[in-house]
Amino acid sequence: MAPVAPRSGDVIFANVERVNAELFTLTYGAIVRQLLTDLEEVDEVNKQLDQMGYNIGVRLIDEFLAKSNVSRCVDFKETAEVIAKVGLKMFLGITATVTNWDVEGTTCSLILEDNPLVDFVELPDTCQGLNYCNILSGVVRGALEMVSMKTEVTWLRDMLRGDDAFELQLKLLKQVPEEYPYKDDE
Amino acid sequence: MISVGKIKQYTNVLERPLSKGKQEVSLSAFAFLFSELVQYNQTQVDNITELERRLEDAGYAVGARILELLCHREKGNRRETRLLGILSFVHSTVWKVLFGKVADSLEKGTEHEDEYMISEKELLVNRFISIPKDMGAFNCGAFVAGIVRGVLENAGFPAVVTAHFVPVEGQHRPRTTILIKFAEEVLRREATLG
């Protein structure tokens, strides 16, 4: 059987069921507010958001692979491009530019061209340390871990904190060899 | 699509142009997020009632904001002041913006004067939710009940709003009914207004 051609992010996004981004934005806002009330410490909220994102990422990768027909990426550069142009597009309807590669080709930045998480949002003085979009970095980390890549994903620039863009840094820590068939314990 | 260079430096949220609300994200993205909201809240409670209350609180925050947004964007800074007006605003305008469709039905309760019901065959938030047996009558629609309460209360119509599964004949899945019970003062005011 001939391999199925990968589909572009635009095509996938046009064909999946969609909801109003405002429902998504406001629901996310409600989550962040709940966490701030429950956990009190901004650092704890950052951690929890990252954890939630990670949980999402490990589940979301299945849908991504099923719908995108993307096959194994040859290198991390391709991986980053696929996240920026296909992954972000098919779930959030946005794309990103990949830039700032280091010489080894293991660290780069995604500059988001739009960010549906932050509509209507302003950080009050008490929450200046909050990485409001930390869920997204968690998602990327979780999803990549499911395809054998241990990564560190951090926000370098955040417009809510006064920067001029949303810049997400992806750092490939190591490629985990696939374990086969399964681990016996754990 | 805005290109990178054109994104304005936003200093004040109120100075940004208000979006037209046409942007979309995938349903999966919302479903994943909502699932995390439910799972997180499960870790914070001991029982179903408490869980529903927390989901309702989260929804309330959304409702309060959506009211403000829609009154500004869709209604020229006016809001409904009469009972039927606000109910149809919830059933039509709010539902359409949030869920992409008008709610399936809006009915007046038959037994009590102060009760109204909005029903939905397949409530968006319940699409990918199945309730484990040991969680009884728990309904994630509590989040939507919260949204409705948030809209109503902030428009000056305090009410108790709850979400219930109602079995439908010939259907595998029950529909969700959002039951609205208005506070006494609301009905008194309506009566005075005539």
Automatic annotation (TrEMBL), chain A:
Protein name per the record: Trafficking protein particle complex subunit
Similarity remark: Belongs to the TRAPP small subunits family. BET3 subfamily.
Record text on subunit structure and interactions: Homodimer.
One Pfam family matching this protein: TRAPP
One of the record's GO cellular component terms: endoplasmic reticulum
Subcellular location per the Swiss-Prot or TrEMBL entry: Endoplasmic reticulum; Golgi apparatus, cis-Golgi network
Origin species: Capsicum annuum (Capsicum pepper)
Listed GO biological process terms: endoplasmic reticulum to Golgi vesicle-mediated transport; intra-Golgi vesicle-mediated transport
Organism lineage string: Eukaryota, Viridiplantae, Streptophyta, Embryophyta, Tracheophyta
Lineage: superkingdom: Eukaryota
Keyword annotations: Endoplasmic reticulum, ER-Golgi transport, Golgi apparatus, Transport
Function: May play a role in vesicular transport from endoplasmic reticulum to Golgi.
Chief location of this protein within or outside the cell: endoplasmic reticulum
Automatic annotation (TrEMBL), chain B:
Keyword Endoplasmic reticulum: yes
Any Gene Ontology CC annotation: TRAPPII protein complex
Cell location: Endoplasmic reticulum; Golgi apparatus, cis-Golgi network
Annotated GO biological process: endoplasmic reticulum to Golgi vesicle-mediated transport
Keyword terms of this UniProt record: Endoplasmic reticulum, ER-Golgi transport, Golgi apparatus, Transport
Keyword Endoplasmic reticulum included in the entry's annotation: yes
Gene3D superfamilies, A to Z: Trafficking protein particle complex subunit 3
Domain of life: Eukaryota
Assembly information from the UniProt record: Part of the multisubunit TRAPP (transport protein particle) complex.
Family that this chain belongs to: Belongs to the TRAPP small subunits family. BET3 subfamily.
Protein name from the UniProt record: Trafficking protein particle complex subunit
Organism: Capsicum annuum
